[in-house]
Each structure stands twice: as structure tokens, then as C-alpha cells.
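hi support,

uploading two proteins for the ticket. first:
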Amino acid sequence: MSFKYEINPERIPEHIAIIMDGNGRWAKAKGLPRTAGHQQGVETVKKITEEATRLGVKYLTLYTFSTENWKRPADEIAALMGLIIDHLEEEIFMKNNVRFRMIGDMSRIPTQVRQRIIECMERTKENNKMTMVIALSYSSRWELTEATRKIAAKIQTGELTLSSITEETVNSQLETAFMPDPDLLIRTGGELRISNYLLWQCAYTEFYFCDTFWPDFNEEEFHKAIHDYQSRERRFGKTSEQVTTK
């Protein structure tokens, strides 16, 4: 059975977040260097971005490099940053009418990579079919710490008071303030955790875990995840009787 034809086009998740795990293990299983796994993973990014656009997903957020990943060997970090420069191809975004955005600690990113990201964001800013977001030098704990600092600064200047702080106040200071929370989070590679990724935003996100390594994750696997999502009832704390399944 092909899950492509089982998907309800009226219930496509508006925002899908993905933890792209398994590049290194994929390479190791094939007797290749870890960088080969990352290179193949880039090809998967292109395929899934195009398919998400075709299906009508509005936001696709990809966990590309965490703040903790800076602890990895220097040669692997250099290779990952080089892949971003080499494969951040604006024609893919322009062809599919996709806007490119980044969330994360821009200050830690090498200058050449930072400039390339800024250029791509600027040149695609008018595209409006889908927004593809990379979480680069990102972690939720870093994000929430930064949001807390921003709120504290506003209190110091009198722009905010303690009693006026709401959930929306926090939301407005997060890296993700420009988009809705994820409807569906997919993690490839067999691990059953979300690794400091969009912790605040995933309060009511549906999770989907699969064993497939990211380089082997294809359109059919993507369709399967969406089909699984569509089989669930999203209650957001209410009872079944109180909600109408979308």
C-alpha cells in the first residue's frame, strides 16, 4: 500500500518539525566517513522540502545543528558548515516558491556561513508557498534563556511589569515567534527523545518516531508519518466530546 494515496489533503499538518537523525550511523553501516552521511542527508532535505511544498505544508523546521553539536570533532563541524555553504541553493527555494529562515544562535556561526544564510533569507523573503526553517546552533534551553533575558530587560526599562507577563509574552520572545507551533514532529534514526528541540513549542505536538536513518528517509516514509498523524485525535487537553477532529 502506498501511503501517498491514503493521505487526506484536507488535514495536512500546517507545521512539521523534523529531527534528522542517523546520518553518522548510516555512513558507519556502509563503511563510509560520517561526512558521507551528512552529504547524503542533504539530498534527503531537498526531496522532503519539495514534497512538503507539494502537499501544502506551510512550515517545515529541520533540526540541523544543536548548540551541543559544537562539542563534536572540529573536522566534522567544518564539514557540516561547508555543506551548508555548498548546498544552500536558492534555485530550489525559488523554483518551489519557498521562503528560507533560520532559528538559532547566529553569533556562533562562522562568518562565511552566516553571510550565506543571510543572503538566502533576503533573496527568498517574498516567497510564500512554504517556509523552510533550519534550526542551526539551536537548542530550546538556549532559546528560553535568551527569551528570559529579553523579558527581564523589558522589565528593567519599564516596558513590562511582572504581572503583565503571559504565555504570549514568552512566545513573542522566542526564535519561532513568526510561525505556529509544530503540529507534527518526526524523528528518524530510532531514538525516542526530542533532544532539546522546540520544547516549549511542542506542548501539544504529535510525535512520530521511525527507525529509518535520515539519508534513507524518502517521500513514502514522509507520507506514512503524515498518515499516522491524521489517524490521531488532537484534543489539546479537552475531551473527545468537546473537540471536532480536523
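and the second one:
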Amino acid sequence: MLKVGIIGGGAAGMMTAVLCSNGQTEVHVFEKNEKLGKKLFITGKGRCNVTNSCATDEFFTNVVSNAKFLYSSIYDFDSSQVMEWMEKIGVPLKVERGNRVFPVSDHSSDIIRAMEKEMRRRGVKIHLNRKVKRILAESGTIHGIQMENGTIASFDVIVVATGGMSYPSTGSDGDGYRFARECGHSVTQLRPALVPLVVEEDYIKELQGLSLKNAEMKIADGKKILYEGFGELLFTHFGISGPLGLSASSVIGKKLSEHPLTGWINLKPALTEKQLDARILREFEEGKNKQFRNVIHSLFPSKLIPVMQRISGIDPEKQVNAISKGERLAFEEKIRKFPFTVTGTREFSEAIITQGGVAVKEISPATMESKKVRNLYFVGEILDVDALTGGFNLQIAWSTAHTAAKNILNVNIRSEEEPYEL
């Protein structure tokens, strides 16, 4: 009987374990925490954004790093199949705005509980509070693992599903990268991703707590636009968070590691330049005998008013009928391009995912097996693949796990006359 050892009991590890356990394998999961799915439990603010039900072709437009590497695995086990599988093991799902898929219950614990139940039903042996120290390989082939207490366990196949560096409190402390390097693999530069942005300007920090529901944000490197998004953002005591801030961090991360980047927020994206000018002219006409500071209250949320007064370049005591056309147009420019400078991101402890990981050129995309060590597999976040928010990263975990499990069974167990079945 084939012995499969899986290091990590998160999303990718649990999925691999379930799909590998078919009665002809002995599957063991080693989880350093006291319970399975600790990071999965907090995803989607505790609701677990299982996947995204967009068309598969559209899926790849949301992958930031190494989309082509994922073609085989995503097309072989796409979101519709993941949804069907989750419902089959007892988790009813629903689709929300942006094609985001959640459990009907809104509880991530339902996903974890159902997967654990399925693992136990299939005879998977789960080892909690068991930390792996190193992977044992000889002559380019796996032969086992050594635990932190020195115990050695022999395995025919090892699957590394340790996750990345994000949310280290859940156990993602980078062990998997060390395992990969010790087995001869390259690990690309690691950065926190889907993480809040740190900005330079004090006036941004003064807006702490203010949320903009329908804003347009751009971030550029000189004249080149690196990120452009529309949606919700949140100002914080250090910069910008919310969906726009998080998504931007993944796209601009590489350039941001080189130098600061400039950004703008369009505070009135529903208005054209001409429409905005007409709106400001109307406000100015109605309050022409008032001071500037008293005529812009209807334009912005209260917390934003003093900041807009300050960066407008117009004396707040100045009467509106004395404001020149040039001053008015400069003020409108600040509304359409509310400026900020991104100097960095928050740390891994606040990042949803890790950008970077085991170099995909050293992994077979059709199997997830190492090209350097036979019967060694890498799945999920440990790989140098990442995507935007919306369920895409969990889909990567499910799909890469499925690909690895399929290959483990096909190569080591089944004959060509008995193809793999989900």
C-alpha cells in the first residue's frame, strides 16, 4: 500500500488528503497546530470565500503571478467542480456579488468540519501538534520525514502544503520554503500580498476610519499605470486598506520594493470632467457670497472636508466669488486625482497571502511534482502563484491539490485501464 505523507492541514493539504485516500493508499496529515484549517477558519472574515464562479478564462485575469503554470490544474478542476464537490460532502453554497462563493451558513467552520469528516471517513490519519523538522530524500527520491522530536517516518510520497508566511499566528511561518531549499529548490523573493498599503501623507492618516464605497484608484510608476481599480477602500492610521488597497498591493509589490509609487483616488468617478466642473460651478454660484470653507460640505463626507480644504490651495476664508477659474480647476483636479504616495505595505502578520514561493519552473504544472526530487509534491500557497481577492487563491489551493492527488494515484496506484476519478 502506498504511503503518502502530507505536511500541512490547511486547505490544500486537506483537499490532497481526501482525494489521495481511495482505499489503496495510507494517507497521513501532519499539522503543527492543535486543529486543522486554522488559516482557512479566518478567511473571508470568517465566512470562507471558497472560490469564484466566474468563467474559467476570466479566472486567469485575476491571477497575478504565473497564471500559465496553473492552466492544467484550473481547467482540470475548476470552480464549478469545486462547488459540486463541496456540496457533495455536505456544504451548501451561495454565490454573492462579484461571483464570490460562500457557505450558505456564512461559517468557514462548516468547510473545515466537512473536510475533516470526509478525511476520517476515508481513513486519513490526522496527526495534530506534530511539527515536521525536515524531509528525507536520497538519490533524488523521497523516503520520509523527520519530526521535531527526532522520530523518523517513512513515506513513498511527500506533499508539502505548508502555506506561505502570511498570518504566522496560524502556523504559516515559512517552514515549507526551508524544506524546498533543503531539497534543492529555488524560492523566489517573498512579499506580503493582499495587504494594506502604507502611505507617506499625514492627511491620508487623518482620514482614519473613513470608507469610500465607490472610488476609483490608480497607482503609477512614473507615467506607467501599474494598478487601476474601482470599488471600496478604507483609510487607516497608516494608509489605505479595503478591497482596493489589498488588491493593489499584489499588483504593485515588485515595483514598490524598488521605490515609492504615486497614487490617485477619483472621489467623484461617476462624473466626467465636464460634469464635475458644472457641479462645482453650481455650488459656487449658490454660495457665491460665502467663504470657501462653507460651500463644499455637500461634496464630501465630513471627515474629508478639512483635508480637501487644505490641499485645494484655496484660502478657506476666501469668498467664493473671488475664487479664480484657475483655482477652481486646480481644486477639481484634486477631486479627480486625490494624491498619495505609497511607500510600502504592512507586514506578513496582516497579509492575506504570500507573493513568491517555490519557483514554478522547477515544478511540473501537469502534476505538481518536483522536477528535482521524485515523489515530492508542492501544492497551494507555497508555490510562486498568487491572485487577487475574491476566492481565487483558495481555488488555486483546491486545484493544485487535485492535480497532485490525481497524479499520485495515477502514477503509483492505477493502471492506464483504470483512469483517475474524482
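thanks. also noticed: Residues 91 and 110 are 7 Å apart (CA to CA).
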